[in-house]
Structures are given as C-alpha cells and as structure tokens.
Amino acid sequence: MKKLLVFLVAFFAAWSAHAASPQELLVASDAVRNPDHAFGLTNTLVEYRQGKQTESSTLAVYSKADPQGGQFRSLVRYVAPARDAGKLILFNGKDMWFYDPASQASIRLSPQQRLLGQASNGDVVTVNFARDYRAETAVEEETQDGERKPRRCYKLNIVASTPDATYHRIEMWIDVSNSRPVKARFYTKSGKLLKTAYYRRYQKVFGAERPTETVIIDGLEPDWVTVMRYSDWVKREVPETWLQRDYLPRFRPE
Amino acid sequence: MRRRAAIAVLAGLTIAAQASDQETDALRLADAMPEDVVRASDWRTFAELGLGAARQRRDGSVRHDRRLSLDVRFDHALSGDWRVVFADRLDISDPAQAGSDQAINTVKETYLGWRPAPDALLDFGRINARYGVAMGYNPTDFFRAGALRSIVSIDPASMKENRQGSVMLRSQWLWTGGSLTGLVSPDLERRPHRDGFNLNLGATNPRDRLLLALSQKIGGFNPQILIFREAAAPTRFGLNLTGLLNDATVAHVEWSGGRGPGQLEQALGQSAYGSHGWRNRIATGLTYTTSNKLSLTAEWHYNGSALNDAQWTALRRGPPLPYLGYRLWARDAQELPTQQALFLRAMWQDALIPHLDLTLMHNRDLVDASRRTWLEARYHAERWEYALQWQRNSGSTLSSYGVMPDSRSWQALVRYYFN
Q1: Which of A89, A147, B212, B297 is most buried (CB neighbours < 10 A)?
Q2: Nearest CB to B26; choose among A83, A111, A217
C-alpha cells in the first residue's frame, strides 16, 4: 500500500511537472530567484581573468517590482571600491541614471553602457525573465550544476518578447524536481554565445531556497569569470519616490 | 561523406568537452572566493600628487608645477531623519595658481539635512546645487558663477567636483515620477576673498537668489523645468530634457532663457546700458556607446548673451582692459566668451587592457576657430590611480583658447584612496 502511495505521488508530481508549459516553468524559476516583495541585499562582485582576481566591487541593491508590469526596478549604490563608493545607479527599465555625489552630476545612461566590467546591467539587478522573454520549448536532459554534480533538468529555449529584453535568445536549465534555475546560456542575434551563468549556493532566504551566487563565464574568453555573491538579504520598503532621477542626490541608506 | 560527418561530430564533442572543463575551472575559482563582505563607510578620502610642465606662449619657456591635494567627503546619517554632509578639498600648488595663495582650501559642502516626512526633505548649509544634463556647458547650472576656486584640470568632471557650494535652504517634495525643489540662497557678502583659507562666501553668495525646479517623468522623457530669480535681475527660465534614441544613444537638450543685458555690459558694470532683450543659452548633443565601452559625445553650445563675430573682433582689437575684464568675468561665471562652440569627447573604458581608461576631449570656438585638445590615460588598481594628462591650446592672438598662457602642458597624477 505504502509503495503504491509513493508511486502515485511520484507519478502525479512528474505528471504535473510535465503538464507545466515552458513559460510556466520560466515563471516558476523566476519565483525561485526573486522574492515576491521589495527587498535589499549586498552583491559582492569579483572578476577573474586567467585564474587571477582582477577587480572587485561591492554593491548595495534595493529592488522593487513594478506594480504595473511586474518587472523589478532597482537602486544600486557602490559600497566599494573606495573610488566609486557612494555612486548610484537607478535601473527603471530603459530609464537608467548614474549619479556621482562628488560632482552632483546625474547622467542618463543607455542600456549599452556597462558600468561593471563583464556583468551586464541585467545581471546586477533583479530580473523577471518571464516578463521580457517567451519560453518556446522544454526538453528534459541531464546537465552539470553549479556544484559540479549531474542534475536532471528541463532545458528551455527562450526568446526575447519585448523591446526591453537584453538578450536575443537564452537557453536555461531548470531542475525538474523543484524549478530551481541551474544554469543559462545567453546568445546574440547572430547566435554567438555571450556568456554562461551558473546559479548556485542555494540557501534559505525569505522562507525559500534561493541561489545566493551567480558565476558568469564569458562566451568568447572562458577564463574571464565574474562571481556575484549575494548577502545581507533584508525585506524592506522601497518607496516609489526613490525610483527617480531627482531622488538620487538625496538618497541616504539607513 | 560519412568520414566528414564523423570528424564534425568528434570536433563538436571536443569543443563541448573543452567548454565543460573551462566551466568546471570557473566554478572551482568561485569556490575559492573569500567570504568577506565590505561594509559601507561614511568617509571617502584621497590624496593626490601632481607633477606637470607647461610651455609658455609668451616666450616659449617651460614652467614646472607641483601640487599636493587632499580631498575629504563625509556623509553620515544621524539618528532619526537627520543627515550631515561635509566635503572639503585642500590644494597646495607650487607655483601658486594665478592670483591665489599657494594653499587653497575649498569648502565644497557643509550641510545638515532633515526629512520631516517620507516625501519631504529640507537641507541647510553650504550646498553644491548643480543642475544640467549637458557635459561641456550647463546653461541651467544657475549656481555655477563664482563656484570655481582652484582649477586643477579642465576636465568638466573635475570642474564639477572641485567647486564650492552656495549657502542656502533647500527643500524638496517628491511624488511618484516627479519632484518639486525650492532653493533660497541669501546675500551674505559682496566681494570674493583671495585668502586661501577664507570661506569665500563673497564668491558664492553675492546676492539673494531663488530657484524652483519641477521634474516629471513623461513616457521615456524626463523633463525638468527651472525658474531662477536673482536680486536686481530679471527672471530666467531653464529646461533639461533627455531621451533614449536607441539602446546605444542618449540625446540631451539643456536650455535657459530670459531678458537681460549682454555679458559684456555685465562684465564692464554697464548693465543699465545696452539691449535688455530675450537671450537664450543652449547645450545640446548625443552620447553614443559602442559594445566595447567606447562612449562618444558631441555637443553644440550656444550663448545668446555672449559676443558675436563682429563684437568679439572689436573687443580683441580694442584697449586691453575691457578685454581682460570680459575674460575674467566669463571665466568666473563659467560662460562661453563667444556665441557658439563645439564640444567633442571620447571615453574608452577598459581600453586595450582592463582598468585603463582613455579620454579625448576637444573644444572648438566656432566664432574665432580657436581650439583646445585634452587627452588623459588613467589606470586604476585597488586604492591607487595613475593618470597622465596632456593639453594643447591653439588659436590666433586673444582668441578664446589662443590667449591661454600655456600653449601646451602635461601633468602626471598619482592618487591614493584611504577609504
């Protein structure tokens, strides 16, 4: 009887997972990466080239989902290195501003302007992929996860569906058992591999297991690696009034 | 055919295996990343040593310059909704900068901030209130007159950073996507001081001033409207507007306008004379960024209050004192001496090697065709920064850039950040 029960639970779990559409799988993996409320965290970025550390930055990130579209807006403050400390970047879709407290200058940025080495703006801030991309297919296969262990995953083929999307196409591997994102490959329009990202070091954050580290490997130069480690997660209110250019000179973290 | 297919499959497998090995190496690297997390500091302090040389236009001799600077910024949240900000810079130059002491201390900001409500802010003290979206000339930066005290570089970023604020009361009310800011800056002293350690309120607060700035996000645009009033002068208006043309290009327009005398009348103390017609000032341009971090900016500058070709030629051919008075006034006011100019800037981050930034800047006076070119290579490593700057001024006698005492100059800088 017990064996039958286990079989039935496993069957229905597998069936329900299979029943999920590729887009639903993408939505589920977004929910694993991103809390469903406003929050703050510290993002420590370390860049390696040919096995040696070449750069490191620490960012305080405050994020809040847009009540309209659902995409996250973020306010990012440099904590380190010392020469950048206090500088701010506001990410509000394609409305991006850079503010330097030393010169009191607010400069509008284009999405192409990258401020953090290899990491793109979309890597640094919280992104709900399902808002700007459409998952077309899901194929089950085994892959190596971020802890270098084999893992059974759905491989999603994802394409850009809004003009706000940063990448043309993404392949994403999602754990069949719990919808955790395992890794992703990002491609240009011409099919060139831009980078590979591993989502790893899963830990309990805000009541759910979430990745607390992303390892980004450059597509052209695989020995160019950026590690982004997230810490100091805190549920906090991010007022709408913060998410505009005119607030940047007045921003003071509590 | 079969052999070719087999080779292709084998090659594909080999590449996949290599990629997998490289990814495994990357993950091992990440395993070894230290667990330390850097905490935010209220302080940002650096010291900078500069050595330079300049060829004198007058006699071709070379002047050697040395400089030591100490720059401090402190921004601390007090208990509750209070905040204190202090920013100061000390420049010790040998020889001294023209008309100044060897040591110049610039109190950039000292103010106390209070947030009486989540959407309302009040600040009081010396505040560097800077407005404008353009890079090389800011017609809406109404508080720029008298703000520069020690010029260590002609880089616009340096000139925006190394300046003294005005004493004022600033209030701001915020709402979703917009804000209204009001500034009141009183008349405290009429004449600037030469003493390097003087607070120099005569330069920053020589008359009563009021500013209102209203911003509201509308679609992809962020317009900002400004109204500025100073004692004994008509009201001036301003507009800042930016827009994204595509994923790589940002366009900007900055405008100010109002009735008033021309710059020459103001410089010579003859504001009561001459035409008091409407005068516009404009800075507009584009910034395009390539995928390899090269940003190219082109701006056109127009100042309807400055001299046109005929007036500029007449002033240059006339007696020296009015010319000198006009040039000094325009420098202190950070205004264009002539009506039109072109500004080009190319900045390449991580150029050729990581951490090396190259900047090329070119100013061209479109009235007298004089020009200035500035090049900088800056390398940063941990707490250190090393920079090499080169500058050339050229043009006919008494032209905008042809009058500069240095025809060519270079400067080597070493900067160390303490925190």
Answers
A1: A89
A2: A217
